Amino acid sequence: MSPFKSTILTLLGWLIASVAVSADRPNIVWIIIDDMSANLSCYGEETIETPHLDALADSGLRFSKAFVTAPVCSTNRSAFITGMYQTTIGSHHHRSGRGELKIRLPDPVRPVPEMFQEAGYHTAITGWPNKGRDSGGKTDYNFEWDRGMYDDPDWGKRSPGQPFFAQIHLPGGKHRGGNIEQSRQFAKRMKELFGESVDPAKVTLPPYYPDHPVLREDWAAYLDSVKLTDKFVGDILARLRSEGDLENTVVLFMTDHGISHARGKQFLYEEGIHVPLIIAGPGIEKGQVRDDLVEHIDIAALSLGLAGIDVPDYMQAKDILSDQYEPRSAIYSARDRCDETVEYMRCVRTQEFKYIRNFLPNRPHMQPNRYKDQKSIVVALRSLFEAKKLTEVQACIFQPKRPEEELYDLRNDPHEIRNLADDPEYQQKLLSMRAMLDTWIEESGDQGRESEAMYDSDMAVYVNSQSRSPDQIDVLKRNIVLMKRWQTRGK
User: What does the domain layout of the chain look like in residue ranges?
Assistant: First the structure.
């Protein structure tokens, strides 16, 4: 066969495949939000209304028990983009692989966009509200990856009739900033936009936080950020509708972990790992609510399934929309190093119980961490603790040590404030949950603690960052020295 004829046949085959893809497969859009828990009207939040997300849930499927496998962004995103536990692929330490030492995905693991691209999809990644025209969205993957797996920030630039896979990333809870002055400025902007902002007096704080003005204002600004996120989702849906794409598009809404707070982001309590998950579009029955346990990595498998792309056998994610799917009996999540702060926690959660193992029990919950310690809410909490104005439950996070094991009865203690690990009546449950976690750690190939060489490699990047002030660099250096001292002492 001549090279010319071979080329013509190849192009003809590609065109036939492209037509088949556009005719039979939907567009897939992921809307991924930073730092936000399930504080939506459709999840029971009463202080604010989220009409666009409520309508999306009404038009499709809402999961009441969706959980992240990692409560911080880069590890979470490394997991869902591959459909793999971050602890399995070695990407479980936040912002790792940034220095001289790199992390590479083990064979045969690959990022999901590559698979969509190979199947004839246009792949896009964008932020919002830039309307997907100019700039790319958040990646934050901890491993080495090919930038070519995304064709363009804007799915509108695809070929005629070509289906698209798009990731849209919104700041979510980050809109409110990290200190009370930023929260107040944000609340002012929201009042200008919506005609009102959330009244701090109407906020209901969880019982493990004190009733304090700073915490109330911060939580009110956070709820304003949820309202703004809802507006942006409405704008995204409006664009899809106006361009004639909405009816053939599956829209998936999820957050990358819970609210950034003392017991939320970075930690394995419900506030940190329970997230909203809403899916709507062709092939999704309207008005469904599912209460089975699902993991955020499952979006990789279900999206491939919706597109008619084979889910790889190695993938730990499950196609939770498949007729062959068997519901999980438990979900698993892990917390490891976040920025300069070394940590090592694992948990297993069933419908009724959660078991947390603290591998470094001689360290406090609120270890030194430059990112969190500068937040006004943490400053206020620490000040109240030092003044002995916190209840016993509220003061737990500042104790010098933690229990090695935590066990919570989620049906009777949804806020996880009564640890049953030492209760004689729950010893059988403790043994059962402990065994479940041990099995998962072994079978999933959990890679555990970070090597000293990798820690040093990434901390060099942190310390030499041009975006940080001299004072911030000094705090980082002190914390790094402390982490190394504690490790030397076996703490």
Answer: 24-324, 335-488
Dist CA 435 CA 440 (whole Å): 9
User: C-alpha dihedral over 267, 271, 276, 277, to 10 degrees?
Assistant: 30
pLDDT in tens, 159-170: 999 999 999 999
Structure tokens at 201: 């007096």
Note whether 288 and 321 are within 8 A (CB).
Answer: no
Query: In this structure, which amino acid lies at residue 75?
Result: T
Give the architecture (CATH level 2) of 335-488: 2-Layer Sandwich (3.30)
Length of the chain: 491
Closest to 217 in 3D by CA, of 184, 174, 266: 184
Q: Class for domain 24-324, per CATH?
A: alpha beta
d(CA 419, CA 473): 37
Q: List, for residues 153-202, the tens digit of each pLDDT value.
A: 999 999 999 999 999 999 999 999 999 999 999 999 999 999 999 999 99
Q: What is the CA radius of gyration of the chain?
A: 23
DSSP label at residue 338: B
Joined together, the tokens standing for residue 326 give: 């068997």
**Residue 480 contacts by C-beta under 8 Å, 6 or more apart in sequence?**
340, 459, 463
Q: What value does the mean pLDDT take over residues 412-440?
A: 98
Question: How far is it, in rounded angstroms, from Cα 474 to Cα 384?
Answer: 25
- Using alpha carbons only, give the angle 64, 366, 257 rounded to the nearest 5 degrees: 25
Q: Is the pTM of this model over 0.85?
A: yes
